[in-house]
Amino acid sequence: MNRNIDINNNNNGGIDYSITNEELSGYVQEEDYEAIKQRYGGVSGLSKRLGSNEENGLSQQEATNEERIHRFGINKMNEIAQKSLFFFIWQAIHDKTLIILIVSAVVSIILGLTVEDRKTGWIDGTAILVAVIIVVLVTAGNDYNKEKKFRKLNTIRNERNVSVVRGGHLASISVYDVVVGDVVKLETGDTIPADGLYIAGQSIAVDESSMTGESDQKRKSNDRPFFLSGCQVLEGSASMLVIAVGPNSQWGKLKLLLQSPDSDTPLTQKLEKLAETIGKFGLIAAILTFGVLLLKYVIVFVKDGHTWHWSELGTIVGFVVTAITIIVVAVPEGLPLAVTISLAYSMMKMMKDQNLVRHLEACETMGGATNICSDKTGTLTQNRMTVVKKIIGKSINSDDFVENGKSSMSDQQRDIYSSPSSSSSRHNVYNDSGKVNQHDCEMEMLSNSRILTLLAEGISLNSTAYIEKHTDRLNDHIGSKTECALLEWLETMPNQSYETVRKENKDRVVKVYPFSSEKKMSAVLMNQNQNISGGLIIYVKGAAEIVLNNCTNIVDKNGESTQMSRDEKMLLQKDIEIFASEGLRTLVLAYKEINNEPSSEDEAKVIYTGLTFLGLVGIKDPVRKEVPRAVKRCQGAGIFVRMLTGDNILTAKNIARECGILKDGGVAIEGPQFRLLTDDQLDTIIPHLQVIARCSPTDKFRLVHRLRELGEVVAVTGDGVNDAPQLKEADVGFSMGIAGTEVAKEASDIVLLDDNFNSIAKAVIWGRNVYDSIRKFIQFQLTVNIVAVLIAFVGSITNGESPLRPVQLLWVNLIMDTLGALALSTEPPSEELFNRRPYGRFDSLITYRMWRNIIGQSIYQIAFLFSIMYSAASMVELFDLPRVDQWTTNDKTVYHTIIFNTFVFCQFFNEINCRVLDNQLNVFRNIHKSYVFVGVVSFCIFIQVILVEFGGEFFGTRHLDYKQWFFCIIIGFGSLIWGFCLRLLPLKDRTNTNIEVKPLDVKNLGIDVDIESQPLLGGKSNWKKARNVFTQINVISAFRNQPRLKRTKSLFATKSSDSNARYNRNLNGSGYGSGSS
C-alpha cells in the first residue's frame, strides 16, 4: 500500500446527517447489501455520504469531529464501575432473615437496658448483632473477592491498537478511537474492531463463530461485504469501512442485553419461604406466650384484689421480653451463615476443579440442574482441528479391514484385493499370517524420501497459516484451522518442520493461487528442487471430491506418478464418502509437474487438471477423552444433556453420538426447522430433543427460556458474544475461561477455566453437595429450634420463666448453630451423589424423611427434658440432690444445669444423625474424612464442659458430678439409637416430577425431524463384525462396479441415517473441507 498519498487528493465531503445509527446497524444485522446499493450506490457512495473516502479514509479533523462522535458514538461500551466492599455489605444486609435478626437484636438490647439487669441485659441482643455482622462480612467479603478475581480475568487483551487510514496515511490508533467512516486495514490474526463493509482485499476469511455460533470460516468479498466486530481474521487481508461502533455494533447490542436483572435462584426462593414460615411460627408462639402470661397475670391480679401501680408495668414488660426471647430462639440465625459457609467452601474447592464461581448461588443451583445445554466446540471437543484419518498414495486404510490387528477377510477375498489385476489400486500390505498394520502402511509410504518431500512442500508452502509453539501449554493456531491441522500433522513426521521447509524453499515460489470459493481449491507454483533438473511443480489442495475428479495419476510406494485406474478412483471416492459420513472434513493433496509457466489464458486448465493424487486426509475437532464418561455420569444423575452447535447436522450428529448425547429415540434438528416449530410442537419435541445443528443465538435463547417455563433448572455453556443472552437467561451460565469472550464471562455464573465439559460434571456434584449440606443443617437447626421454643414456651407458661436462661439460649441458638453450620456445611461430596435424580425447581426444601427425623428427634428430646423438668421430686436421688422442698438456690441451679447440659448433648449427638438425609443406617460413614466436622464437634464439647464447670453466675451453671455428667451424656447418646430406629421406618420421599413425555408423532408434527434409532441388526448382534463384512463387500463391489453395494449398506443403516442426498448437500459447504465443517 502506498503510504505517501497526498492528503489533498482526499475528496471527502461533509457528513450526511440523514443517516442514522439505527439505519447503519440495521444493514449489518440483516446483511442487506442490496438496500445499501439501492440507496447509496454501494460502499463507495456510502463512504462519501459519511464524509470519508475509500482510499484516503477520514481526515484527522473529520475523525475528531465532535458532531460525528456525538451522532455515531465512540467505540467503547459504558464500563460498569467496580463494586466496592460497602456495596456488597449493603446488599448482604437486605437478606430477610438478617433483617428479622437485626430488629430482634435491637429490641432485645433496648429491653435489656431498660427493664432487665443492665449488667447482663445487653448481652443477648449484642451477641445476635455480632452474629449478623459475621454473616454480612463473610458474605460481602466472598462476593467482593470473586468480583476482583473476575475483573482480573477480563483485563487481558482489552487494550489494543488497530491500523487505519487517516488523511491518506496509515496510522496505528487505539481501538477505542475508531469512529464511523474510518477505513481499517485488516490482516491475518487481527480482531475486527467494529462493524464494517468490505472495500477491497485478497482472499480474506473470517471466523464469526463468536457472533453466529457457526464454526465455518466466512470469506468476504464485494458480494459478501459485512464484517462483524469481535470476530477474528483467519487469513488474507482487506480494507474495511466502519459503519457501526460501540453500543451500536452487533457486539455492543448483545452486551447491552446483559443489563437485565438477575432472577432469584431456586434455593433462594425456598430459603426465603422457609424463613418466613419459621418467623410466623415464632411470632405465633410469642403471641400465645404473651397472651397466656398476661391472662394468667390478670386473673391472679383480679382474684387477689391487687391495686394497679406503675411498677406493675415492669411485670408486663417482662412478659414482652419472654415473648421476644421466643422469637429470637425461633428465628434460624444460623441458616444464612450455613448457606454462606457452604457456598464459600464449595467455591474454594470448585476453583481446584477448574470452576471459577462468579455468583455463589450458582453452586447450589447446579445441584438441582435438570438440563445441560452444551456448546460443541471447545467444550465437548478440543477446539483443535486434527488429522485423524489419512490415506497416502496407494497405501491401504487398514481400519476398514482389520479388527485387533487381524484381517477378517477370507483368503479368497484377500486374493481378489491383492491380485495382480487389482494391485494397481493399492499395494498388498498383508504378511504371511494375514495381519496388516496401518502404521506400517503409512511408514512404508513415508519412508520414501520423494513422498515425504512432496507432502512436506505441499502442506507447508501451499498455506498461509502458522503455529505459535509453546513449551508450557498447547500451541496456538493462527490462520485457517484446517491448514493448521495439516501443519501439526507434518510436525509429527520424521525430521520434518514446516518452518524449515518454508525457509529453505521460499525462493522457489513462483506464484500463489489463493483459495477460491468457486473452485474450492488453492495452489502454489514452484520451481523444481535443485536436485531435479528444470521444470516446475504445482501443489494443489482442496475439497476432496473436486480435487480427486481432477486427478489422473496416483503416487505409488516408490514415489512415482502412475496412471490412476477407474477402480482406484472409485475406491477413493468411497473412502471420501466413509470419511464424510463420520463427520470428517476431507481434503485431497495433489501435485503436478510441468515444463513451463502457464499463460494467463490457460492458467486454470493447466494448474487444476491432470493432477497426481498424493493423499486423502480426514480432519475433525476430536472429542475430549473425558467427555463421554462425564456425559454418561450426568445422564446417570438424571440430567438431560443436549448439544447446541452452529455446525451442520452431519457433524453435529456424529460428535453427539461419540459423546453419548445422541441416543436411541433422540431427535436431531437444524436451526431453520427449529424456528418453524410452534410452542405446542416444541413442547412435544423437547423431551426427545438432543441435538440442534445450525443453531442461532435466538434458537438457544428460545430453548432455554421454554425449558425454564416448563419448570426445568437449566445450565448452559457458551463462549461467544452471541451466547450472552442465553447465559444470562439460564439458571446457571458456564462461560469458557480460555476461548470465552469478555461478554460471555460477564453474562455467566461460573467460568470454566479449562473449557471442559468434565468440569461441569464436577460442578454438578459440588452443587448437590451444597444443597445436601444446607438440608442437613436445616434438619439440625429446626430440631434445636422446635425443642428450644417449646421448652421456653411451656416453661414460661407453667413456671413463669424458661428453665433455659437467655445467655444459655444464646449458646444453644447462636454459637452452637453457627458452629453446626460450619460442621455440616463443609463435608466433602461423594460419588453417590450422581446416583440419584436432580431435585428440580419445585422440590420441597424439607423432605418427608427430614420431617420424620426432625419431628422424631424433637419428640425424643422433649419427652426426656419435660420428664426432668416436671419429675424433679422422683429424680433427686438419681442426681444426689436433696428433696425439692429443701432445695437451695444452688440446688435449683444444679438441676437447671442438668436440663441445659442434657439438651446440649442431645444436639451434639443429633448433629451426627443429621449427616444422613435418607434411610442410610450408618451415620458414621466416612466421618474420618470430614475433618472439619470432627474438629467442630470436639471443640463444641470442650466449650460445653468449660461453660458447665466454670460458667458460674454469668452463665447460670454449676459444677456437675460424674453421675450427673453420665446421665446427660447417656440421654444425648440415646438420640443416636432413636435416630437408627427412625430410619428403619419405610418412608419414601416424593418423586421428582418431570416434563410429561408426549408420544412423538412425526406424521402429525408438520415438520421433518431426524429420530435416532439403533441398527436394524439389533443390539445383540455382532455389529463390529458386520461392519467389517460390509467394508469387504464395499471393496469388492467397487472393483466389480456392482449395484448391490447400496443395497447392502442399507442393511446396516439406522432408520434416521443420513442419505446420500444429505451427504452431497453437506459437501457443498464453504471452505476446503468436504462433508463436515
TrEMBL record:
Q: Name one Pfam family in it.
A: Cation_ATPase_N
Which CDD domains does the record cross-reference, listed alphabetically? P-type_ATPase_Ca_PMCA-like
Q: What EC number is given for this enzyme?
A: 7.2.2.10
Record has Coiled coil as a keyword: no
What keyword terms does UniProt attach to this protein? ATP-binding, Calcium, Calcium transport, Ion transport, Magnesium, Membrane, Metal-binding, Nucleotide-binding, Translocase, Transmembrane, Transmembrane helix, Transport
Please give the InterPro entries that the UniProt record associates with this protein. Answer: ATPase_P-typ_cation-transptr_C, ATPase_P-typ_cation-transptr_N, ATPase_P-typ_cyto_dom_N, ATPase_P-typ_P_site, ATPase_P-typ_TM_dom_sf, ATPase_P-typ_transduc_dom_A_sf, ATPase_P-type_domA, HAD-like_sf
Q: Name one GO cellular component term.
A: plasma membrane
- Major localization class: membrane
Q: Which Gene3D superfamilies match?
A: Calcium-transporting ATPase, cytoplasmic domain N, Calcium-transporting ATPase, cytoplasmic transduction domain A, Calcium-transporting ATPase, transmembrane domain, HAD superfamily/HAD-like
User: Where does it reside?
Assistant: Membrane
Q: Which reaction does it catalyse?
A: Ca(2+)(in) + ATP + H2O = Ca(2+)(out) + ADP + phosphate + H(+)
Residues annotated as region Disordered?
403-434
Q: How does it sit in the membrane?
A: Multi-pass membrane protein
Give the family this protein belongs to, as stated in its UniProt record: Belongs to the cation transport ATPase (P-type) (TC 3.A.3) family.
Query: What is the role of this chain?
Result: Catalyzes the hydrolysis of ATP coupled with the transport of calcium.
Q: What is this protein called?
A: Calcium-transporting ATPase
Q: Which organism is it from?
A: Dictyostelium discoideum (Social amoeba)
